[in-house]
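User: Can you help me understand a structure? I only have the sequence.
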Amino acid sequence: MDNLRHIWLSNNHIAELNENTLKIILETLRSFLVDGNPIKCDCSLKWITGVDRENAFWNNFIGECATPKSRQGEALNDLKETDFPNC
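Assistant: Let's start by predicting it. Here is the structure, written out as tokens:
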């Protein structure tokens, strides 16, 4: 998957972004679009806060939280470790 540069998964009813699946490809990505999906921004997504924000894909990481209600509409690339205090 070294040649994989863009993943566009908008509006596909995706609720979770699995760390084990995605971490292996993040280094090569230039864009990752998951907007329009009901992404759960719970403890299972805390790993995303540890991704290098200098990574080329980070500015083209498009998606937002659907749940919990307190995070609804928040951009995934704006999440910080402090957003997950109970995890």
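Now, to help you interpret it: The chain has one helix and five strands. The first helix runs from residue 19 to 22. Let me know which part you'd like to focus on.
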